[in-house]
Amino acid sequence: MSTLVLDGVSRWYGNVVAANDVTMTIGPGVTGLLGPNGAGKSTLIAMMGGFLAPSAGTVTLDGTSVWRNPEIYRTIGLVPEAEAMYDMVTGWQFVLANARLHRLPDAEGAARAALEAVEMMPAKDRDIGTYSKGMKQRVKMATALVHDPSVLLLDEPFNGMDPRQRLHLMALLRRLGEEGRTVLFSSHILEEVEEIAGTIEVIVAGRHAASGDFRRIRRLMTERPHQYTISSTDDRRLAAAIIADGAADTVDLTSGSLAVQAPDLGVFVHALPRLARDSGIRLLDVSPADESLESVFAYLVAR
Amino acid sequence: MNRVVMQLTVRGLLGRRRAVLLVLLPVVLLALAGLVRWASGGNLQNSVNLANGFALGTFLPLMCLLIGTGVIGTEIDDGSIVYLLAKPVPRRTIVWSKLAVAWGAAVVFAVLPLVATVEIAGDDGARLGWAFAAAGALAALAYTAIFVALSVVTRNAVIIGLLYALLWETVLGGYVPGVRDVSVRQWALAAAERILGDQAAAWNVTSAVGLTPALVLLAVAMTGAVVLAVRRLQTLRLTTAD
């Protein structure tokens, strides 16, 4: 049982802040690090894995600092995002080399067990250069599991996996978490994270935006005001009708078209056509202002 | 030193496409030696000129650059070094293992071709061969250590190393008096000068520095490069986020 603690961790590159005063505790079980691309997830994982010094704050593993401390790798297994491995050796040779670098008493047994866990035994004697992206991902996983670590850090492990491999890795991570290991993985896809992670930490623009189980995060994301941009034959009269009806709490005409913010998606989409018909107004265009994940996360931060 | 790191390093050095250059450049050098032999019929001065000029001044630093960046620079560039760093292995063990492979490769692909060049182009018994073997081995020790350190310090190691090898060591180190004192090539030549004894001056195999200061400077350069490489590897920034 191991616990990673980030305490007031910030990291900046010149003027760019990649992580901003992040404090979180990652304990046994599966934790998902969720955030849009460029939010600073990789930076955080690099700091947790001892590959990047925090500009401020501390990262500790069971009370000892992880920076400049190679001994932590007896406890930590790392699955990097970068795809590059040693293309000119076979999967078996590579995982075995990793086991030997850990000076395991039974390196061959450990390598076999790790490759079995990721179901890569059938292809173990092929050069890594010939593997598909998903197979490489599984060999990376095997190198991280080979010394039976109690902490596992995975940077975007589902990238490049086909659905079957994805399901398999999800089951594997879930099992590792149930065994009492501390498993942390990053992803920018909510569905992936809520499928297996008991705890979700949301990172947006370097900040720790939310923390909790998936129900809480899901609620935060869906029960937010929805924004629409509308153009019609008479924006001004439509705005008045929408406000009078109470289907939206904000209407804005300053940008040339009609911008609406509605607290409840269902109520608004049913009210809009009715209001337009009753007022004799034709709707020319109705589009959600920004439904991208970034805007969902941005809402969490601004909250 | 760690046997597994060395094995992976050897596979990495010889398994990539650039390994072709490790064979191609020595072949070019040996072909040149054969040409010199054919044109001048074993004239010793011509043999010395080839060995002392192109072979020691350009070929050897280039080969050491290829090898020094090949044993660690490629792994840092593509990020695969993370598999070595995420292990409870001291960073100095990683650096020494990589250097051992680099030195071995430099002897096989650079120093032996240098000696063969002298033997093909013309030798006085085996004196020239021994003299350039000593100079080449010393230079290879220092060059590979410097280029390994450079690979850890900067992602532009090949460009900077190329400028250093061609401008500093070949051009400036050959002619500019002040630079000659701090040139690996000149330090290494001190050993060749000592072995050739009285005839060194006649063959124009002369170093800007004496043997003792040369050996001291070589040791200082190597130690400095190793210390720098270990220290920078301890704090190597490994993230795609920046």
Evaluate the radius of gyration of chain A. 24 Å
**Describe the biggest sheet of chain B?**
none
Total number of domains of chain A: 2
Sheet of most strands of chain A: 6 strands, mixed
Q: What value does the Rg of chain B take, in angstroms? A: 18 Å
| Mean pLDDT, all residues of chain A | 89
Query: How are strands sequenced across the largest beta sheet of chain A?
Result: 6-7-8-3-9-10
**Count of individual beta strands of chain A:** 14
Gross geometry of chain A: elongated
> Largest interface by residue count?
A-B, 38 and 32 residues
Helix content of chain B: over 70%
Please tag this protein with its features:
heterodimer, A: 303 residues, Rossmann fold, Alpha-Beta Plaits, four-stranded antiparallel β-sheet, 10 helices, B: 242 residues, mainly alpha, globular
Protein model, in words:
The complex is a heterodimer of chains A (303) and B (242). Chain A has 303 residues and is α/β, with parallel strands linked by helices. Chain A has two domains: 4-221, P-loop containing nucleotide triphosphate hydrolases (Rossmann fold, 3-Layer(aba) Sandwich), CATH 3.40.50.300; 224-302, Alpha-Beta Plaits (2-Layer Sandwich). In chain A, 37% of the residues lie in helices and 27% in strands. Chain A is built from ten helices and 14 strands. In chain A, the strands form three sheets. In chain A, strands 6-7-8-3-9-10 form a six-stranded mixed sheet, with helices on both faces. In chain A, strand 9 (199-204) and strand 10 (207-212) form a beta hairpin. In chain A, helix 2 (91-101) packs parallel to helix 4 (133-145) and helix 8 (235-245) crosses helix 9. The longest helix of chain A is centred in the middle third of the chain and has 16 residues, at 163-178. The mean pLDDT of chain A is 89. Chain B is mainly alpha-helical. Chain B is built from eleven helices and no strands. Chain B has helices spanning 3-15, 19-40, 44-78, 82-85, 91-121, 127-153, 157-175, 177-181, 184-196, 199-202, 211-234. The chains are: A alpha/beta (303), B mainly alpha (242).
